## 1
Amino acid sequence: MAIDPTGADLKAFLADRPDEPVVMLNLLRFRDGGQESYARYAEAVTTTFLPRYGGEVVYSGDGSSPLVAEDGQAWDAVLLVRYPTRRAFSEMVADPEYQQVTHLRSQALAEAVLQPTTPSG
C-alpha cells in the first residue's frame, strides 16, 4: 500500500507548476495503534515545519462511516494542508530535520493518499 511519496513522485509533483499554491488532500488509514505515532508526527509538523515553509492546516477531521463508498474505501482521518507553493512542500519533505520525524508518519499508517489540489475557477 502507498504511504510515502517516492523521489520520482516528488519530481513529477514539482514539475507541475512549482511556484503555484497547492492544497494537499491527505486521506489516512492507521495501523492498529498508529494514531499515537501519527499524533507525535503531526505535532512536530504543525509546530515546526508548516510555519517554517509557510504551510497551514486548513481542515483536520476524523473519518466516520462513509455515506457512499465501496468496501475498503473508508478513511480514519482527512486533512487539508495549504502550502504557498509546490516547491515549499518539496523543500519541507527534503528538510533534514523533517526527515528525522517522518518515520513516525510511516509507522503510523497502513495506507495514505496525498492528492495535490488547486482551486478551480
Note: The first strand starts at residue 22 and ends at 30.
## 2
Amino acid sequence: METGREDQLKFAKHFERAQGWLLLENYTAADRALRLIPKTFRGRPEVAQFRAQLHLAAGRWARAVPLLRRLQKQDPTEPQYAVSLAFAVRRAQSIAKAEQILLEASRRFPHEAVIWFNLACYAAQQGDIPNAFGLLRAAVNRDVAYRDLAKTDSDLAPFWAAVNAGTVEKPW
C-alpha cells in the first residue's frame, strides 16, 4: 500500500474518531485523535473547523479565537465563522469586543438572523434595552424561529424583565 493512501486512511479513521469523541463530550480523547492525524492533513480546513468546534465545546475560548480568525480570513463568505468567533471572544475577552465582530458581520451578512439575534443578546446584557428590542425584531423578521428562542435565551433576561416591568413594549 502506498504511503499517500495509508495517510488518507489514517486521516479518515482518526478524524472520524475525533468526531465521535466530541459527540461523547470526551474532549481529551478527541484532542488525542486529532494528534494522530498525519501531518500532511492537519492543515486542512475541515480539521481547523473541527479543532475550533472542539475548543468551543470544551470551553477553551482563547484557544478557539485564533483558529476562528484564520478560518474567517480564509473564507470571508462564511457567516458562521464570525458568529463562532464572536461567541469565543465574548467569553475570552468581552461582550464589547464580540459585539464589534458581529456589527461588522451584520454589514457583510445582513440577512443572517443569528447575527442580529446575538447582537440583541449583547445589547440586553449591556443594559441597552431599546437597542435589544430593535435587534430582536430584526432577527425575528429574518427568521421567525428566533421568536421562540428569544423566550428562553438567558442572555435576553434583562430585556424580558423590562417588558414585564412595562418599560419596553412586547416585540411581537
Note: The chain has eleven helices and no strands.
## 3
Amino acid sequence: MTSAFDFEARDIAGQPVSLGTWRGRVLLIVNTASQCGFTPQYEGLERLWQSYRDRGLVVLGFPCNQFGRQEPGDEPQIASFCQLNYGVSFPMMSKVEVNGPQAHPLYRWLTEEAPGVLGTRAIKWNFTKFLVGRDGRVIRRYAPTDTPASLAADIERALGEPAPADAR
C-alpha cells in the first residue's frame, strides 16, 4: 500500500468503507476513546471538521480500547456518546487496535510512514493524530497532547487555503 486511500475500514455501523472515497481530500486520522483525559478533544476535532470540511478536510475517528481500557463500549454506545456529548458528526469508524499483531493495516502503515519520538512505531496513547495530504501520503504525526486547534496551520497548508477564524 502506498497511499492512505488504498485502505478499507468499517464505519461505526459496521459497513465497509474504502478510504478511497475521500481521495483528493486531506485526512486527519485519530485513535479515540470515550473515557480518557483527552476525550474533550472531540469538541476540537468537530470544530476542525465543521470549519474545513467544505474545503476538503475529512476527520476520521477510530475508537480504540488498547490504552487503559478507556473505550469499553460497543459501536452503538460509542456513536451515541460522541454525538450526545460532543455533537460529533465527522465519520467514526468501528473499534480497532492500533498496536500489536491485530493492529488495523491502516495503522500499521501510518506508524511506518510517520514514526513517533525516537523512531518508535507504536502509538503511545489515545488521540494520536495523523495528517494525510491530498495525495494520500502522511504529512505529520501528532502527539495526544497536541490539541486539534494547534493543527490548524498545518491543515491550512495541506488544504492550500487560509484557515477560517472559527477553526483556531
Note: The chain has a mean pLDDT of 92.
